[in-house]
């Protein structure tokens, strides 16, 4: 069995902050995390990270594209490129996320995910896919194309899942059949998520009672908080166990809103996401179409040319974590669960992923504590960056 030692690590894991630590990896698993002296005998690889942060590899449950590719492109290369970009961010698992498009296009995306899995997932891993739409509220499309919006149909989810497992679906719970749809999703092992929704609190509750516990990009494309109808933003604050995704680029939510969310909500139920588009990892001025709508990247912001709606982000996971740490001052050992472990728990992988601890899979990111750039990434114990 291969043996790797990472030394001089500043380990940050949920409720753990240890400097000068040594991590011993055997095969795919973490064998030891210790501040005691460790013999390097028998180790094939010894990496001195010189005091840099070593965190659980990030898990991004909501990301569409990067490096000019989108998961919904009918292009086999798209998932490979997205996974390569994600690995560069320190993301070791992610759910490639679809847009509101036709059933045929969704099936092609799932087939491309399958091809990446069959190739052995050489970059970041994909435990499944996230369908963002098409079962959303046509009045809350944001950058999703209203022409492809349809009513919730579990049969369509089943068809796609036969090709590659669907792990999450963002849909509007107030739509016809929306409450039952939550139950049907859970039966299939899919996380139903409230998103692109115009629901009132009372319209969310039937789906919540049926098990819905996730909110897609909290605050964006959902009913705002009003003092006579608290909407979905109010629901996110009122109901503790709703797992709220947050785009932490300081654009989709202003810094004060990020502070409000991260200081008032239970951190066990907050998840940093990127919602990155094909323009992620690209330069300003890059223009493209999304579900038939034109988008342009300016000052790092991706907006629809017509109307100026935000159309997703260019955020990197590590920078999301840094942004929240900067604006809230919350210690990293408390925040780090929002970039990995919370997501792992919800995907049923909480005993394997999301911690730098004995017995956990050695999915690790090494970050420079000054620049927050990724220095190294380990996936299943193998150094891939
Ligand atoms: Zn999205």
Write up what this structure looks like:
This protein has helices at 77-89, 103-118, 154-163, 178-187, 201-209, 231-238, 255-264, 317-328, 332-335, 341-346, and strands at 3-13, 16-26, 29-34, 45-48, 53-56, 58-63, 65-66, 69-70, 91-98, 129-132, 166-171, 191-194, 214-215, 243-247, 270-273, 287-290, 293-298, 301-304, 364-367, 374-379, 382-383. By secondary structure, it is α/β, with parallel strands linked by helices. It folds into 2 domains: 3-55 and 355-383, Urease, subunit C, domain 1; 58-346, Metal-dependent hydrolases (TIM Barrel). The mean pLDDT is 96.
List the helices and strands and how they pair.
Elements: E1 3-13, E2 16-26, E3 29-34, E4 45-48, E5 53-56, E6 58-63, E7 65-66, E8 69-70, H1 77-89, E9 91-98, H2 103-118, E10 129-132, H3 154-163, E11 166-171, H4 178-187, E12 191-194, H5 201-209, E13 214-215, H6 231-238, E14 243-247, H7 255-264, E15 270-273, E16 287-290, E17 293-298, E18 301-304, H8 317-328, H9 332-335, H10 341-346, E19 364-367, E20 374-379, E21 382-383
Parallel strand pairs: 1-4, 1-5, 6-9, 9-10, 10-11, 11-12, 12-13, 13-14, 14-15
Antiparallel strand pairs: 1-2, 2-3, 5-19, 7-8, 16-17, 17-18, 19-20, 20-21
The structure holds zinc ion.
